[in-house]
Structure to design on (118 residues):
């Protein structure tokens, strides 16, 4: 009987609530200017602290209109695995290691230990 009572109600595809009497959260609009002159706006909550810099999806980084350009400390560079490897070895040393490993691989001696266990 429950299957017949739900038939035709489109359960899950449409909400039975309406937007009547619903107040959206108060917002403030921040305007940012890119170095090339492009401007864009971003809505923020009234309670939010507006950042002085915002990354635009199309034109790069924008600076909050009316604010000074932040001259704080530069962001710390995130070191990748490659950067850390280059701190320990020179590119010439890495090339020698690569050539040695490729030679072992081509000779079929690279995984000798794991193949002897089988």
């Amino acid at each position: 009987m429950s299957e017949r009572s739900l038939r035709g109600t489109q359960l899950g595809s449409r909400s039975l609530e309406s937007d009547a009497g619903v107040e959206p959260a108060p917002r403030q609009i921040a305007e940012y200017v890119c170095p090339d002159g492009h401007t864009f706006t971003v809505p923020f909550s009234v309670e939010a602290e507006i950042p002085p810099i915002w990354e635009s999806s199309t034109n790069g980084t924008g600076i909050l209109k009316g604010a000074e350009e932040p001259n704080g400390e530069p962001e710390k560079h995130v070191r990748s695995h490659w950067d850390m490897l280059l701190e320990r070895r020179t590119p010439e040393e890495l090339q020698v290691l690569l050539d040695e490993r490729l030679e072992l691989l081509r000779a079929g001696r690279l995984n000798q230990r794991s193949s002897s266990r089988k």
